[in-house]
Design a protein that fits this description.
By secondary structure, the chain is an alpha+beta fold. The chain folds into 2 domains: 113 residues, Gyrase A, domain 2; 122 residues, RNA Polymerase Alpha Subunit, Chain A, domain 2. It is built from 8 helices and 11 strands. It has a 5-stranded antiparallel beta sheet. The protein has a 4-stranded antiparallel beta sheet with strand order 3-8-4-6, with helices on one face. The two termini are 34 Å apart.
Length: 283
């Protein structure tokens, strides 16, 4: 197996792209899956309504609250994990963050307003909504919405609202081998949608390039098997993997990767301990 290395190809907003060499597909795919299922984040899980005279049912508002994305970087260090809090109900401060809302309009108000996530009063200043302008509901004159909600740490395997990423992709790296001396005009027209390859053909007679990022290479493979059959060959390397993660904003993308590797390490240690125990018991 080739030398192991991990390189950050790009960090942009909530997205991160990694180039991973020398690791098995099974190992990196475990990281990809754990990103979606086992990295904990905060999300609202309880909502108690004291007054709701809006046109939207309590259950629908509760559902919308559950999908509010909350900043979770600091919360991971402050609040207990879901397995510890599974038998504890709110408002225990070790497990829950309180969110309070009491919004009303008098009968003399001429127009209604949208109640937004920014109107929630949160007990922990380190927990804030990532998208504060997200609407919760519309309140018309004479209506009121009064509720208390509680957020806790959870994992994506329990519900998707706790998943820190909306996209987690693992792909082989396409490698294109080319011979510019054999490229025809028809071939150049076919690969016109891949400027990185066209530029490579113009700069040197023979070589190879690796294609990174979310670039669909099915069209390139078609060209290589038809109009460019003698001049271009496309292969997909399982030794150079690309991990592309698009976070929701609850955690920084680099923190998502770190937490996923830590979860995998803990799982491996737990499995090792169970195997050692069975061996010690003679089973």
């Amino acid at each position: 197996m080739s030398e192991k290395s991990i390189k950050i190809l790009e960090i942009r907003g909530n997205s991160i792209s990694l180039i991973i060499e020398g690791f098995s597909v099974a190992y990196v795919n475990s990281i990809r899956r754990l990103i979606l299922t086992d990295v904990p984040t905060l999300a609202i899980d309880f909502a108690y309504f004291y007054d709701n005279s809006t046109d939207v049912y309590d259950e629908m508002i509760a559902h919308r609250l559950g999908l509010v994305i909350l900043r979770s970087d600091i919360a991971l260090e402050k609040y207990a994990l879901p397995e510890i809090c599974s038998q504890i109900e709110p408002p225990n401060p070790k497990c829950f963050v309180e969110l309070f809302l009491d919004y009303s309009l008098g009968d003399d108000t001429k127009t209604g307003v949208y109640v937004k996530v920014r109107d929630l009063k949160i007990s922990d200043p380190d927990v804030e909504p990532i998208y504060p302008d997200t609407p919760i509901t519309y309140i018309a004159p004479g209506q009121r919405l009064h509720l208390v909600a509680y957020a806790r740490l959870g994992r994506g395997r329990e519900h998707a609202k706790w998943s820190p990423a909306s996209i987690s992709i693992l792909k082989y790296t396409p490698i294109v081998y080319y011979d510019a001396s054999k490229v025809t005009r028809e071939c150049l027209d076919c690969i016109a949608g891949y400027p990185m390859l066209v530029n490579a053909l113009e700069s040197q007679a023979r070589g190879r390039i690796e294609i990174y990022g979310m670039i669909n290479t099915s069209g390139l493979r078609y060209c290589a098997e038809s109009l460019c059959k003698d001049s271009i060959r496309v292969e997909y390397s399982p030794n150079i993997l690309q991990l592309i993660v698009e976070g929701t904003g609850a955690l920084k993308p680099e923190r998502i990767i770190y937490e996923a590797t830590r979860v995998l390490e803990d799982k491996i240690k737990s499995l090792r301990a169970q195997i050692d125990k069975l061996e010690a018991d003679g089973k």
